[in-house]
Amino acid sequence: MSGATPATQWLRRAGIAFRAVEYRYDPGAERVALQAAEAIGLPPERLLKTLMVEVDGRPACCVVPGDRNLSMKRVAAAFGGKAAAMMPPDKAERLTGYRTGGISPFGQRRPAPTLFETAALAMGEVAINGGKRGLLLLLDPRAALAALGAGAAALCAG
After folding, report:
1. Which stretches does DSSP call E strand in 26-144?
2. Cα-based torsion angle of the residue sequence 105, 107, 110, 114 in order, rounded to the nearest 10 degrees
3. Coil, helix or strand for 35?
4. Strands (E) located in 23-146
């Protein structure tokens, strides 16, 4: 399995240091992010999942700890909208150029405004999807946020 994806190429061009880690992706896992964290021996809060949403019908990207759930009310408010919903998987795949289970915030076909869960920025090294199923990128979350021109907000429930 090769680690070269639009996400890794994007990070290299941006000069962001990362380490690629491959694992066996389990499409039947109940919670894919938790399965991925376990597969590489990482606490689930340090694996950041990339979730594509729509806020008032416009695409947006949320990067949140794998053991947490989004609060659509918080997501809508953070992006300055009234209502938020998960983006349908087929639409997320067309927009990002990645398959669900492998969506990365880096190197998306059509980049969407991106926010990180604030709590994720307090962690040291985190894992973020590398643009294909079974590939995680270990990097500093603050460097990722800066490179993406992303913001931070409380996006998760409770």
Report:
1. 47-55, 58-65, 84-86, 114-117, 126-129, 135-139
2. 30
3. helix
4. 47-55, 58-65, 84-86, 114-117, 126-129, 135-139
Q: What is the DSSP letter of 87?
A: P
Summarised one tens digit per residue, pLDDT across range 32-75 is 788 888 889 999 999 999 999 999 999 999 999 999 999 999 99
Q: What is the pTM of this model?
A: 0.93
Q: Is 2 helix (H, G, I), strand (E, B) or coil?
A: coil
How far, CA to CA in Å, does 71 sit from each of 43, 52, 58, 75? 22, 13, 17, 6
Tokens 């066996």, located at residue = 24
Distances (CA, A) of 148 to 69, 95, 108, 135: 22, 17, 11, 19
